[in-house]
Design goal:
By secondary structure, the chain is α/β, with parallel strands linked by helices. It has helices spanning 8-14, 29-39, 50-60, 63-70, 77-87, 132-143, 157-164, 179-191, 210-215, 227-230, 233-237, 252-265, 269-275, 277-288, 299-305, 318-327, 348-359, 374-382, 392-423, 429-433, and strands at 89-90, 106-108, 111-113, 117-119, 147-149, 169-173, 197-200, 310-315, 331-334, 365-367, 387-390, 438-439. Bound molecules: flavin mononucleotide.
Length: 441
């Protein structure tokens, strides 16, 4: 008699231990990929736990880069509170529901997204890696995850847009002292396919950030994070008029900063050194970068200059949500800038609950600050967010492993969101939104 060697799975099936119809999703694809790579001794590049990711970044990134990304305002109490707020809410696991077919897709401003997850605008990423925003755009395209271009990006929006393919992109605006520049940035954003303008309201002035202050480090003085300005015709057209102010005694350090600014400015290094145009650009930027006298009435100007949806980022209370509704904007983004502006401020998650109560279903409400995992995304969605932004995790992963690092963070977050959804008995984003979280006493 001829014996036949059977593979393990086949043997089990023949012996009737496994049903013939396998559940294809019993190990979702990204989780399976990680385990498969594990059998070959290949481990994830990026620590899956945020604390570990941050600890590794601290060991491996240049001190100024780590300080800028990890740092927050003052004693960083808002930043810590953002995290603790997530622990106040619990997800209720549910049993015996058919969760074999799950769908993470959602529609935002009429456009289908792979999932309600996006990359929050993060400026000055040039500190952590060369070509930073371009690498982020490549990863976003591979993960089909929308990207919000920062006004303080290190690679201009047109380049990032060309790398994104069909993946949605928005533009985040810091409202500068020059309305002419605002209009120019917005029209460029429209031209490169941005689908919304996000106006960040919480940074009329830069926060008090001890980690950067301790190192005397502000990326913009090295022309890091100025790509949207340097590539702008309006910004450039005023540079010739700039009269450089005296900058104090020349030291080795000031020469190094000047040299780096000349390198980051782009074009001929020799010409930059000779004309000192990069210094003029830095000075002009510092003079105009934001307005402390902006009021609700100014939004009218933006409305006149764009047909794109306008989203206000930084709304943290019921009253401002009501004013946003009255101003006729198209979306609200609840955020405390990851605790980088106000120390001892309220947490973004608590603000989300309050803002949702005011807004009801009248506007999409986006959310970020403290999101570290798929379970966190689930919680923010269950509390009413339309979509959720990821910030520091992708910035640190970019520093550690470039494009692949950002991709890993995105795929891990999405995989965990998918699994959490299954455990909570949800099959769609609508199901998540209809789910109630439990509040710890
Ligand atoms: C290093 C860094 C740079 C940032 N730059 C910007 C920016 O240019 N524009 C903006 O609107 N928000 C900026 N933010 C805020 C993020 O968009 C987001 O609100 C914040 O990262 C959320 O907090 P989390 O990263 O702790 O989750 C920045 C945040 C970090 C950490």
């Amino acid at each position: 008699m001829k014996t036949q060697m059977l593979g393990t799975g086949e043997w089990f099936r023949k012996a009737n231990f496994l049903p013939m119809k396998q559940h294809v999703d019993s190990v979702p694809p990204y989780q399976r990929e990680i385990y498969q790579k594990g059998t070959r001794g290949q481990l994830p590049r990026i620590p899956l736990h945020f604390e570990e990711l941050q600890a590794r970044a601290q060991r491996e990134l240049p001190a100024r880069a780590f300080a800028y990304v990890a740092g927050g305002a003052g004693q960083e109490s808002t930043q810590r509170a953002n995290r603790l707020a997530f622990e106040d809410w619990c997800i209720q696991a549910r049993m015996l529901r058919d969760v074999s077919r799950r769908n993470l897709t959602t529609t935002v401003f009429g456009r289908e997204w792979r999932a309600p997850l996006m990359l929050s605008p993060v400026g000055a990423l040039g500190l952590v890696r060369e070509q930073a925003d371009a690498l982020v755009a490549r990863a976003a395209a591979r993960a089909r995850t929308p990207m919000v271009f920062s006004n303080q990006a290190s690679v201009k929006m047109e380049t990032c847009a060309s790398l994104l393919g069909d993946t949605p992109r928005w533009f985040q605006l810091y409202w500068s002292k020059s309305n002419e520049l605002v209009a120019s940035l917005v029209s460029r954003a429209e031209a490169c396919g941005c689908e919304a303008i996000v106006v960040t309201l919480d940074t009329p002035l830069l926060g008090w950030r001890p980690r950067d202050l301790q190192l005397g480090s502000l990326p913009f003085t090295r022309a890091i994070g100025l790509a949207q300005y340097l590539s702008d015709p309006v910004f450039q057209s005023h540079l010739d008029e700039v009269k450089l102010r005296p900058s104090g005694p020349i030291t080795l350090n000031s020469l190094e900063v000047f040299y780096e600014a000349c390198r980051n400015y782009g074009g001929s290094l020799w010409k930059n050194l000779r004309t000192r145009r990069p210094l003029k650009a830095v000075q002009q930027f510092i003079d105009i970068y934001s307005r402390t006298d902006l009021t609700w009435g100014d939004l009218e100007f933006l409305r006149k200059h764009t047909r794109l949806p306008i989203v206000l980022k930084g709304i943290l209370c019921r009253e401002d949500a009501r004013l946003a509704l009255e101003a006729g904007v198209d979306g609200i983004w609840v955020s405390n800038h990851g605790g980088r502006q106000v120390d001892g401020g309220r947490t973004s998650l608590d603000a989300l609950v309050e803002v949702m109560a005011e807004v009801q279903e009248r506007l999409p409400v986006f959310f970020d600050s403290g999101v570290r995992s798929g379970a966190d995304v689930f919680k923010a969605l269950a509390l009413g967010a339309t979509a959720v932004g990821l910030g520091r995790p992708f910035a640190l992963a970019l520093g550690l492993a470039g494009e692949e690092g950002v991709l890993e963070v995105l795929e891990s977050t999405l995989a965990e969101l998918d699994l959490t959804m299954a455990f909570a008995g949800c099959c769609s984003i609508e199901d998540i939104r209809a789910t109630s979280l439990l509040r710890k006493q």
